[in-house]
From TrEMBL:
Residues 56-119 form the BZIP domain. The keyword Coiled coil applies. Keywords: Coiled coil. InterPro entries: bZIP, bZIP_sf, C/EBP. GO terms for biological process: DNA-templated transcription; myeloid cell differentiation. GO terms for molecular function: DNA-binding transcription factor activity, RNA polymerase II-specific; RNA polymerase II cis-regulatory region sequence-specific DNA binding. It comes from Kryptolebias marmoratus (Mangrove killifish). CDD domains: bZIP_CEBP. PROSITE patterns: BZIP (PS50217). This is BZIP domain-containing protein. Pfam families: bZIP_2 (PF07716). Residues 74-115 form a coiled coil. Belongs to the bZIP family. C/EBP subfamily. Gene3D superfamilies: 1.20.5.170.
């Protein structure tokens, strides 16, 4: 299963708390505190990895919970994709129906324009046929 990781030792932790030193300055009647953050050496992270035992109960529990969460997330994504596809199909059908309606109304409009233009050409005295 590979090499087991070593846990942090006291020498690895050193001054990595990030709290740093507090410097106090007087500004008028107010006291201003500045925190100076010490830089954390990268070397500590490279040579002092976190403990990880693949056969520990805690590790197995975390893995099982993660596996459940991953399955749940993927199922949710699949459902979302299916719903999106269904919605796209519904919208396509609706779009086709609306396009048909537009064609029908356009034909009706053309017919009415033709009838109106025929009446206009005949004049007011002639009876409509």
């Amino acid at each position: 299963m590979g090499l087991p990781y070593l846990s942090y030792t006291a020498s690895c932790l050193g001054n990595m708390s990030g709290s740093g030193d507090s410097n106090h300055h007087q500004s008028g009647t107010q006291q201003v505190r500045h925190r100076v953050r010490k830089a954390r050496p990268i070397v500590h992270f490279l040579f002092c990895p976190v403990a990880k035992l693949s056969d520990s109960a805690e590790y197995r529990l975390r893995r099982e919970r993660n596996n459940i969460a991953v399955r749940k997330s993927r199922d949710k994504a699949r459902r979302r994709v299916l719903l999106t596809q269904q919605r796209a199909m519904q919208l396509q059908e609706e779009n086709q129906k609306l396009q048909l309606k537009v064609r029908q109304l356009s034909q009706e409009l053309d017919t009415l324009r033709h009838v109106l233009s025929q009446r206009h050409l005949q004049g007011p005295d002639e009876p409509a046929v």
